[in-house]
User: What shape does this take?
Amino acid sequence: MENTPLLPDGIIQRKIYLIREQKVMLDSDLAKLYQVETKYLKRQVRRNMERLPEDFMFELDNAELENLKCQIGTSSWGGSRYVPMAFT
Assistant: This one.
């Protein structure tokens, strides 16, 4: 039997950003990958912070958020009322 990748090549690579000199994925992209809503992913992370390493994730500051919007483009960004989490 042939090993078929679950995701086409490049899908995950296109969702990785360099923020604070770390390669990260945003909460919304990670939620899509796991097929859950972003708010549920964030809720579970917050409920289980004591179980996670300190460098597991961080929240973007306003400058990082603005820079990210410029990189992604406002039309595809979609906007959010909450500051995104970046997962290392």
